[in-house]
């Protein structure tokens, strides 16, 4: 780092320090101090220090220039006194070190500029890990009580072209094919520069997840709009979005606990504004625990989309009023916060009317009018699922683009041919066993015979069989599909089979529109030029998918552009540090404020302007948490503070026993018990904090949710995040929760 070290005033060079870069850090301090002493000794006889910083207890207020050297010679080379003298000299004489010296001081005295990441979903987590791996420090803010965002709900997988998995499986894909497929899907709103980044960096993104986070992504399938199988998921059957996002969450928790000086997590921190000075972004303001706090640094926004923005300032109502009354698959957090904040400071919203309506939202027969719907994975249609209208007929290419399929479904509704059902034969059901069990467990899918299916639809068995016969002939190549379908899986389909069946309706799912960025994830201002120190990734970033997003590209967009934003922000952070201008601080070391705690000998804390170091007793240190998961400590007043996540080794199940009959009595929203792997959990005071939404828990009020739990979670999440919610064990059952 120290290739050109010298001290200089704003107008001229004062002295040079040759060879500093070749020394160990302690020797660098010694050499630099020696040079400064020579400089001090050339000054008038009385030199005073310590006027604007808190000195060590024995630090003299003033000495003659000739007295400083012998006094310092009595101090250890690593002492805080030596560092204080070094910085005070620079401050007193307003000496400006070159970038290499600034960088050295930043790291040697624990002054830690950092990147602020807003949003703890997959894109924010990808950015945070990229910043950390590049050597930067990061603070992650999220308005929710848990990380994850909509990414945890992604059920199909993550796209990648020319990955190791594809090569080993002899899938004849190419990056160019993926680029062309995405360009075609984006239609007239295609941004070739952004699509190139998305597709050409796709294999690297998938393999980064595999190599850095040890994720299994060795199964591939073909989704609608793709010319090759390129959507990756694992063999463990868990939803890919949950598996991927949780792996990154866990790793960030470990970093926040083991390296708090480099990684901070603050949940329930609602960012309310972006701070700037001219075109330069200086940080953000956020609310935490009823107080407003500001933090300085470059900013990566990963706040998600606006497909659940039913607020008074709704972007949906403004740009797509025709969708405002639809149900949404998004969490309640997806209210366009980032879009609104960026546009408020002069950023550009682009393609804001491009809102993706997904064709297969699962209709809950117990609450068909609910504003919130669970998504049926694209993989269901990819593995051979058929869409049948209210007469028992096909009406579209099931593998067509999402907007096309949704449009065809609306036409069926206009004809009076609702509801639309998605059906899976036994072959497809076996391939998608995890999905069918999961949806069935939530009461959203039923298993039935072909005869029962015909009865439920309201058509004759012969009519239904004729629909299947025509489809089989198309799949065998004997006929051309009138709807243009080209790919067929898990055939034949026959009425003398068993089926998994669910009622579907189009739902709000994703927003392609968002904030205008360039291919470096920099947010552009009203003049089309990048803001300095402001980046966007994930669903917030507009233009990445054009007019329509391909299935499997939401997770990919999060990882690719999260990494791009993290890289670009890290480069900016380091360049700024090397210029000696961190955050909103000035370019002189004269603005260093140094603090030494007499009770902690040798510990030095430094602030550069308003840019505090992590670990100085700052607001961020007081608010920081080491858990990315929900707050489940039993306290309703806790604004999000978690000292440490629950340690599995210290967790034990209470001895109190309850019968299943007693558990069954606690079956309301205000009094809700659930059994998981032999333990009884009281969850009524935590419904709104559940990452999967309250309905996922309410489906099992007073019942055993073990099978559903095992599909989505590892055992450790209960002792780690929910030890206080465990109130006992089931009488007569063995506790199988691994603790």
From TrEMBL:
Catalytic reaction annotation: succinate + NAD(+) = fumarate + NADH + H(+)
Keywords from the named record: FAD, Flavoprotein, Oxidoreductase
Region (Disordered) location: 599-652
Family matches, as InterPro entries: Cyt_B5-like_heme/steroid-bd (IPR001199), Cyt_B5-like_heme/steroid_sf (IPR036400), FAD-dep_OxRdtase_2_FAD-bd (IPR003953), FAD-oxidoreductase_2 (IPR050315), FAD/NAD-bd_sf (IPR036188), Flavocytochrome_c (IPR010960), Succ_DH/fumarate_Rdtase_cat_sf (IPR027477)
EC number(s) stated in the UniProt entry for this protein: 1.3.1.6
PROSITE patterns for the chain: CYTOCHROME_B5_2 (PS50255)
GO molecular function, one term: FMN binding
Cytochrome b5 heme-binding domain mapped to chain residues: 655-731
Cofactors, names only: FAD
Gene3D superfamilies for the chain: Cytochrome b5-like heme/steroid binding domain, FAD/NAD(P)-binding domain, Succinate dehydrogenase/fumarate reductase flavoprotein, catalytic domain
Key word Flavoprotein present: yes
Membrane among keywords: no
Comp. bias regions, Polar residues: 608-638
Family according to the record: Belongs to the FAD-dependent oxidoreductase 2 family. FRD/SDH subfamily.
Name used for this protein in its record: fumarate reductase (NADH)
């Amino acid at each position: 780092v120290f290739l050109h070290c010298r001290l200089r005033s704003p107008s001229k060079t004062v002295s040079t320090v040759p060879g500093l870069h070749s020394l160990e850090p302690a020797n660098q301090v010694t050499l630099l101090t020696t040079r400064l002493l020579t400089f001090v000794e050339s000054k008038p006889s009385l030199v005073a220090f310590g006027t604007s910083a808190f000195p060590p207890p024995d630090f003299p207020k003033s000495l003659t220039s000739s007295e400083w050297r012998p006094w310092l010679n009595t101090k250890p080379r690593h002492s805080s006194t030596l560092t204080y003298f070094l910085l005070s000299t620079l401050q007193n004489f307003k000496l400006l070190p070159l970038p290499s010296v600034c960088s050295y001081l930043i790291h040697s005295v624990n002054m830690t500029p950092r990147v602020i990441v807003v949003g703890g979903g997959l894109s924010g987590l990808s950015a945070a890990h990229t910043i950390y791996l590049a050597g930067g420090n990061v603070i992650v803010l999220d308005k929710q009580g848990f990380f994850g965002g909509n990414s945890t709900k992604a059920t199909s997988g993550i796209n990648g072209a020319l990955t190791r998995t594809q090569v080993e499986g002899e899938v004849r894909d190419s990056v160019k094919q993926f680029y062309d497929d995405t360009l075609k899907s984006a239609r007239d709103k295609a941004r070739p520069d952004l699509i190139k980044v998305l597709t050409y960096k796709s294999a690297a993104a998938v393999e980064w997840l595999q190599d850095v986070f040890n994720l299994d992504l060795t199964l591939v399938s073909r989704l609608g709009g793709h010319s090759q199988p390129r959507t990756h998921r694992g063999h463990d059957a868990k939803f890919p979005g949950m598996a991927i996002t949780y792996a990154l969450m866990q790793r960030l928790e470990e970093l926040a606990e083991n390296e708090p000086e480099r990684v901070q997590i603050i949940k329930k921190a609602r960012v309310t504004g972006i701070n700037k000075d001219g075109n330069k972004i200086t940080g953000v303001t956020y609310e935490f625990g009823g107080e407003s706090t500001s933090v300085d640094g470059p900013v990566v926004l990963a706040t998600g989309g606006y497909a659940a923005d039913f607020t008074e300032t709704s972007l949906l109502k403004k740009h797509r009023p025709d969708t405002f009354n639809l149900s949404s698959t998004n969490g309640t957090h997806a209210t366009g916060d980032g879009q609104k904040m960026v546009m408020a400071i002069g950023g550009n919203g682009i393609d804001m009317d491009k809102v993706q309506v997904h064709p297969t939202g699962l209709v809950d027969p117990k609450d068909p009018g609910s504003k919130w719907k669970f998504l049926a994975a694209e993989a269901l249609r990819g593995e051979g699922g058929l869409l049948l209208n209210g007469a028992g007929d096909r009406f579209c290419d099931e593998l067509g683009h999402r907007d096309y399929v949704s449009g065809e479904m609306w036409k069926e509704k206009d004809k009076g041919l609702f509801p639309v059902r998605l059906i899976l034969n036994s072959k497809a059901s076996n391939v998608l066993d995890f999905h069918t069990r999961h949806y069935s467990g939530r009461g959203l899918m039923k298993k039935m015979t072909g005869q029962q299916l015909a009865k439920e639809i309201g058509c004759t068995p012969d009519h239904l069989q004729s629909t299947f016969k025509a489809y089989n002939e198309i799949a065998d190549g004997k006929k051309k599909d009138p709807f243009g379908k080209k790919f067929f899986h898990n055939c034949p389909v026959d009425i003398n089979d068993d089926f998994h069946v669910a009622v579907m309706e189009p739902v709000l799912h994703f927003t392609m529109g968002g904030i205008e960025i360039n291919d470096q994830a920099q947010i552009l201002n009203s003049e089309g030029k990048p803001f300095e120190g402001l980046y966007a990734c994930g669903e917030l970033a507009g233009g990445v998918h054009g007019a329509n997003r391909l299935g499997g590209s939401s997770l990919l967009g999060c990882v690719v552009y999260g990494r791009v934003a993290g890289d670009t922000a890290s480069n900016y952070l380091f360049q700024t540090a090397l210029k000696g201008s961190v955050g909103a601080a000035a370019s002189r070391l004269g603005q260093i404020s140094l603090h030494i705690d007499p009770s902690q000998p040798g510990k030095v804390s430094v602030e550069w302007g308003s840019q505090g170091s992590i670990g100085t007793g700052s607001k961020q240190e007081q608010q920081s948490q080491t858990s990315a998961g929900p707050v489940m400590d039993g306290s309703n007043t806790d604004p999000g503070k978690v000292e440490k996540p629950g340690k599995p080794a210290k967790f034990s199940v209470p001895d109190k026993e309850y019968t299943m009959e007693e558990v069954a009595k606690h079956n309301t929203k205000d009094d809700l018990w659930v059994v998981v792997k032999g333990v009884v959990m009281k969850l009524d005071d935590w419904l709104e904090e559940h990452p999967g939404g309250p309905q996922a828990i309410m489906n099992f009020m007073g019942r055993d949710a073990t099978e559903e739990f095992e599909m989505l979670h590892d055992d450790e999440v209960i002792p780690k995040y929910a030890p206080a919610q465990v109130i006992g064990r089931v009488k007569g059952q063995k506790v199988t929760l691994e603790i």
